[in-house]
Request: fold
Amino acid sequence: MQIASLRDGVSAEEWQLRCDLAACYRLVAAYGWSDLVFTHVSARIAGPEYHFLINPYGLMFDEITASSLVKVDQDCRKLSDSPFPVNPAGFVIHSAIHAVREDAGCVLHTHSRAGVAVSAQKCGVLPISQQSTFVLGSLAYHDYEGVALRDDEKSRLQADLGAANYLMLRNHGLLTVGSTIPDAFLFMYVFESACRIQIDAQAGGELVHVNPAILQGMAQVMKTATAGLGSALAWPALLRKLERLDPSYRT
Reply:
């Protein structure tokens, strides 16, 4: 699908955000976390207004480009001309989080097989892997209330999330909150890995739990493990991966 480039029609900052968000959608598809055209990754555009970029509803994640992303307001109304529809119902969860988390530069939500499987387990995420220890330090849960279409669910979602960066939507899927797009993606990579490992481990013998003392201070451990760069350490390598696969995301 040929889309006219917006590169010369938006600020350099917005164009970079568009390229990063399109890359994030492509990576979600590449790692097998997408659910056809459903779920969203939203990114807030810097500025006093609450304006966001979101996927054009109906495109597969591996089709999304920087120029095809749609700019919307807090109510998911289109703010710029686009041939694509948006999905206001799917934005309920995202708008709720962006409204109360000033640090939420990006909100990433998935319906992956492993994520939904663990979200259906009463125990939730178990401390049985190194990956799980990073998640458990900032993990919250939100009970399933049906398809997220109602505004009255927002306050309960906001209260359940609090200041956490990882949210397990019971019987539904996974969600991460990052100050940047790379942060939200790296959080989801770790979250998804923890869930996949848990499902695999449960198919075997008795599980060994990580010593609770090790779970303390994992945020600092993560910082040390990434040389203080956090997601910025892995993001350039991920972009190089996309360049090898298909560089059209940045058109």
Summary: Residues 12-250 form a domain with the L-fuculose-1-phosphate Aldolase fold (CATH 3.40.225.10). The first strand starts at residue 41 and ends at 44.
